Structures are given as structure tokens and as C-alpha cells.
Amino acid sequence: MSRTLVQPVGQKRLTNVAVVRLRKHGQRFEIACFPNKVLSWRARVEKDLDEVLQSHTVYSNVSKGVLAKSKDLVKAFGTDDQTKICIEILEKGELQVSGKEREAQLSSQFRDIATIVMEKTINPETRRPYTITMIERLMHEIHFAVDPNLTSKEQALKVIKKLIDHFPIKRAPLRVRFTAPKSNFAGLMEKVAEWNATVISKDESGTQPSIVCEIEPSILHSCEERLKDVQGRVEVLSVSAHAEGGPSVEHHDNVEVPQAAPAKESDAVAEISETMQKQSISSESQGNAQGKQQRRCKECDVLVDDKLYREHCKSGWHKHNYTRHKNGLLPLSQEECMVEMELADSKKDLKDYDF
User: Fold this and answer.
1) Please, are residues 328 and 309 in contact by the beta-carbon 8 Å criterion?
2) Cβ-count burial of 256 within 10 angstroms (0-12 exposed, 13-18 middle, 19+ buried)?
3) Which residue positions in the chain have pLDDT lower than 50?
4) Residues 6 or more apart whose Cβ sits within 8 Å of residue 291
5) What angle do CA 23, 27, 31 make, to 5 degrees?
6) Termini Cα distance of the chain
7) What is the dihedral of CA 298, 300, 306, 310, to 10 degrees?
């Protein structure tokens, strides 16, 4: 007695694939490829066709597993050689990207853009770079959306312009060396003063004295043009003056910082602490006073009444200490936690962040 294999009617034969589609002579032809391999093939990074194609087969509908008819292939491509047709579709066809794959590509490009922004910007008060996490958060706050049709560098420059309008952030200066003949060195110094350049060092010995400065990136091209008047030239030493471990960071460590901000912060801490002291918020003291069964929260390092433990885990205090615990930091008391959270909310202008 023979048995028939029954399959679901709506079953998809091939899933989790990158589909490349080509319309020719009124017919639709598709091929099934491995995810993230089509672009590598077109960029000539991947040269093994078997690493790109899931099968050397031409379909009329990949998702339903419907194969293309031989007569349609001959009519459209002039041959029924499946491999040659697959290569042509792979080169000229339109890539149908799945939702997860598109999301992964956008997420990766978002990270690349944030990295470029981090490398090209500094905090104008501390003259140090922001962290990559902070840059990503600022990009989310200005509702930045990745455009897959533009390069990461183009979008990074647009992001920097938007961030400058809303947050204390500026382009990192370029470190350059200006060189001119000794007879024109005085004229070079005048131009440096006009450009508001920060002088790092000068070398007036020899026939070609030089001066090392930090300038705004936007005036580099104009500097090159105006140096022709004094027969000078410019050499870029560093595209980012805040490079980690670089001399520019050390140079600005001694910049005087106004002391008013810490005083305001201390007043805020004192005010919030005084407010918190008026509230009965210590779970440990509550449990001891009532003499009920208690559980210890390892993230907050306190004893909490068994019936209140669930509510404690939902509190902002516990969530804040949970984050600190994952980062290897010591827990804060509820008073300290509330003070820290209140201060964070009061620093929306980001001027008190120091990296």
C-alpha cells in the first residue's frame, strides 16, 4: 500500500534567502542567493559563484518554488544554460532584501556614521571627544534616519551640522604645519593670527621656518590659496586633534574651567539630599521595624520585605543599580540613586558631561 506525502498548501520552499529579480521580455526571473553575498559579488570581493547562489536554478517565483520554463529562458536569454542566466541575473537584477537583512545593514551603517562623527567632533568645553554611546544617543534625539543611498561620510557631515545646532559639540580641529621662506615668515604669522589658529610650536631655524597650529577644518582650502601670497605651503599632521594619547589632549588639560558649575551641582545635591531625608525610603529599616520575612537584593545590597520585593525590582532604584552591577560598579543607596537620577535630568544641555 503506497503512502502519499502530504505537504501544507502554503508552504514556502525557500526561505531566509536574498532574491535577485530580473524582468525581461515581459517575464519575471528570479534566483535564490545567500544573504549578504550579492553585494560582495558585485563588488568583486566574492569570486566563487557557489558561495553566492543557493542553487544554479532560475525561478519564476522563489518564495513558492516555481521554476522558470525552458522556452521562456530561451526566448528571453537566447540560451537555457542555467549558470550563464544566473550570472546575468546576478549582475543586472534587482536585489530583494529581507526585512531582517535590511535592518542589519541600516544598523551597521548607523554605527559607522556614529563612529565618523565621534572621530571628527569634540566637546568645546573639555576639548575631548564624546563616547560612541553618547553620539548614538544624540543621533536618536535629533531623529536621524540612515539613507542607504548615501555614503556614511556624507551622512556623518550632515549629522554634525544638525548636532552643532542643538548640542554643545564642534568639529575637531586639524593639526597642520605651515612653512614659508624666512623672508615671508612675518607675513605667515599675520595670516595665522587672522585665521584664529591655536599655535602649538614654532621653529624659526633654517631657511624654511615652520609653525604648527590647530585650525578649523572648514578653512583648510582657503589657507592653501592664501599661502601662495607668501610662497608658503601647508602640511596636515593630524585630521583629528583629539586623537587618544595625542599631544593636543595633554595640551588642553591645563585649560582653566569656571568653578561656578561644580558649586551649582553641590547645591543641587544638597537640596535633593535634604528632600530625600524627609522621606522614609529605606526598605531595610522598614523590614526590621515590622519584623517580617525579608529577602536580600544583591544589586542594591539591601534587605527588602518579602511582599515588597516584586515592587522593589520594578523601581528605578533597582533598575539603576542593576545597570551599575552589570558594569562592575558598586550599588548606590536609594538617596544617592535619586540624587544621581535628578542630576542627570537637570543636565539636558549636556554641558556638564566630561569625557
Assistant:
1) no
2) exposed
3) 1-2, 12, 243-266, 268-269, 272, 275-290, 348-355
4) none
5) 60
6) 77
7) -100
